[in-house]
Amino acid sequence: MSGDLDHVFTFYVQSTPADLWNALLDPDVTPHWAHGLRVLTDGRPGDAIHWVRPEDPERRAVMSGEILEREDERSLLHSFRLSAHEDPATRVRYRIDPEDGLCRLVVTHVGFDERNDSWHETLAGWPRALSALKTWLETGRELGRREAAAG
């Protein structure tokens, strides 16, 4: 059962589980959907996970955490802490389920004690990021970008 403060988002994506999984963990793909951030992780339980701005030569983490659980192409759980806030760490789970030629992606962000800065920022940020992920996987384009008209 989810708590009052949990964020739960469900999306259906026309993708294979392998391509969706790759989009979550490939540092060359994440900038296209994750607010321009590059993920840095080996993706194994116990490994660190950091989200950095590609243009930052010092690779300062915008978000950091630790991989807590992993089930290849199905589920990933990591701790989550936004560097800009002193709020306690929370947890994010990505769950991929193939369904009728699509993938259902459920992102559950839990562990909030209150509606703090991180709660508000992630509540606003997840829908845009996940919409951008869906757009990227289905069209190969970034959300909000259109190809120039042929002339």
Question: How would you summarize what this structure contains?
Answer:
The protein has helices at 17-25, 117-139, and strands spanning 7-13, 38-40, 48-52, 61-71, 75-82, 90-99, 102-110.
Write structural notes for this entry:
The protein has 151 residues and is α+β, with helices and mostly antiparallel strands. It has a single domain, classed as Alpha-D-Glucose-1,6-Bisphosphate, Chain A, domain 4. The chain contains two helices and seven strands, in the order E-H-E-E-E-E-E-E-H. The protein has helices spanning 17-25, 117-139; strands at 7-13, 38-40, 48-52, 61-71, 75-82, 90-99, 102-110. It has a seven-stranded antiparallel beta sheet, covered by helices on one side. A hairpin with a 7-residue loop joins strand 5 (75-82) and strand 6. The N and C termini lie far apart (54 Å).
User: Into how many domains do the coordinates divide?
Assistant: 1
CATH level-two architecture: 2-Layer Sandwich
Unreliable residue stretches: none
Number of strands: 7
Read across the widest sheet, the strand sequence of neighbours is: 1-7-6-5-4-3-2
Q: What is the element string, with H for helices and E for strands?
A: EHEEEEEEH
Radius of gyration: 15 Å
